[in-house]
Amino acid sequence: MSELELDGIKIDEEVDITDVVCPVTFVKAKVALEELDDGQVLSVHLNDGEPVLNVPRSIKEEGHQILKLIDNGDGTYNLLVKKVEE
Length: 86
Known about the structure:
The protein is built from two helices and six strands; from the N terminus they run βββαβαββ. It is an alpha+beta fold. The chain has a single domain (4-82), classed as TusA-like domain (Translation Initiation Factor IF3). The strands form two sheets. It has a four-stranded mixed β-sheet, with helices on one face. Strands 1-2 form a two-stranded antiparallel ribbon. The chain is globular and about 30 Å long.
């Protein structure tokens, strides 16, 4: 369990999907979310373009809560997602 905080939000786990392309980006994020307990927060590090457009939408469609999308200023983002009970 990591003791991280990003923009004042406690992060329980992180996943970096900057090295993969759609649709694998969502799959990796979904698998990471499945490993969390309800209410925990996942930080997804992703690239600009397709991933930043598709991953948040797909996660929201799964019923999870998007807390924040942070622009890192280097072509990557951190998407903070709260796992919601399925």
